[in-house]
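Entry 14. Two folds queued back to back today. First construct below, sequence then structure tokens.
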Amino acid sequence: MKRYRSKEFFAEYLAALNAAPDAYDLEHVRRHFSIPLGLLGRPPRTGARVLDAGCGPGFFIRAAAENGWAVEGVEVAEAAVVYARNVVGVPVREGAFEEAVLPAGAYDAVTLLDILEHVRDPRAVLEKACCILRAGGKIVVSTPDYRSLSRLLLGRSWAVLSPAEHLYYFTAGTLRRLLAATGFDVRGVANFFVFNPNYTHAAGSRRHLRWRDIHARLERKSLAQRILMYEVRKILRLGNGRDKPASPPGAARAAVQKLYSGLRVLVRGDILFAVAVKKSS
């Protein structure tokens, strides 16, 4: 808790989002959150409510409000709550999400973006999210993938392995099972094939420099941009309840996609995205 409430932590977060102590760039925020915004989608009805648990300074819900959602946030860090209210201009209550007094069945969507790995009891957090959602309401989750290639190459120096902040680590299988066990119908869990090779506790180490060099070489290939766009389209389909294209590909493309999918089972990016809906009963 000292870490979350320190000035250093908040300064790091603002810098990562290209924000200043008294201003922020909404277009940068929208680009940064483009995938979770896409998974959340447009509100299903006028006045539809979304709650972002662990919302930080409220950047995501500010972008969601631009898309027509009635937004709320819950955040444990006092400085972030003050920033959200005074600078971003969104309603955020201070405290732990699982302890907040919130009306049952009142929300159309709940988002948990890079939060589930931080909490003391992920099951309790997901049960709380399920409780406050209406039947059929959507939950969008993002969290690091423990099977990421970054962890395999960087080992214990991968910065996600940070026990002072990250108390739990997930794979696609464990995240899917936990969602299913807490009242959700899982629409899909997908690994996003992106990396941050500089996210390490040991900058300048042999492992870091080797991984950074490999990543830089791959990123320069024209194929890298095509793969990125393919990955984005694949993940955004989860927001519509589909994990496959609306129309099947031709035989040649299907063969390439099958080979690529097989490789992706072994070579995984840094992030997991999950979309689920609250079961009707």
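Second construct, same run, same settings:
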Amino acid sequence: MTTLLALLLLAAQPAASGFPVPDCALVPGWTRQGEPRSFDTETLFDYMDGNSEGYFAYGFTLMRGITCVSAAGDQLVIDVSAMGDPDRAWGFFVANRDLRSPIEAIASAGQVLPRKATFAKGTYYVEISASPDKDHRQALRAFVVALLKSVPGEAHVPDAVALFPPAGLEPDSVRLVPESVLGLRMLKTGFVSQYPAGRALVVPEPDAQAARATFARLRERFPAAKAESGPGEEAFSATDPYLGGLLLFRKGRNLAGVANVEAGQDPRPLAQALAARLP
């Protein structure tokens, strides 16, 4: 039994050794307080005080962190999380960003605020929280710059972001919905964005056959739907008590369309523009 356990631990070492472990010494004047932290899917719940479901929805597998202190008594809590893939790391940042502040061109995307810095890079999401209550942006930015060198991966923005027509697109409104797009379980993972006409969506499927099957189930979800001649290869419009006016279509392996359209608004121009950008 002891030999088997040793072999299992040895086999796990290469994967663990590649994880970017933060280091207080990356920035002069900071030292580590306490022991390094490590959490997986079984233990994250306690560390997050029960708020771990959001991490899991974006494919969380492992978090490693440290606490750093300065001689002045300032404290930084640094946590690096491995997410499901680069799309989900980006999507997790977007879902948790400060909506009152702009997104910065830090790796895939990031923000440096007075008491918190966050960014995504490759498959990783990095969060640094500062205390006490004052402006820590200088220290936070220094650690962000240092961590960018040690966190592997590329600056990655999902390809689907470029599919949304720029005309009328609300700035920084594109986001990844990791499950149940529009609250519909059949639309497993996709992207949504905001326009004056409503919410646009793109849900990629593995291939055109899978997209046709999902679109058929989607059409059944709205019994009073009306078939539309376009856009895409098949389309329908409907009205829903929760989703408002809808115009949904399939083009190739992508399901797309416009939802939450208010009475008097015409979703067709936006849907046609979206269809023209889909492969």
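Quick look at the second one. The first helix runs from residue 2 to 17. The chain has a mean pLDDT of 92.
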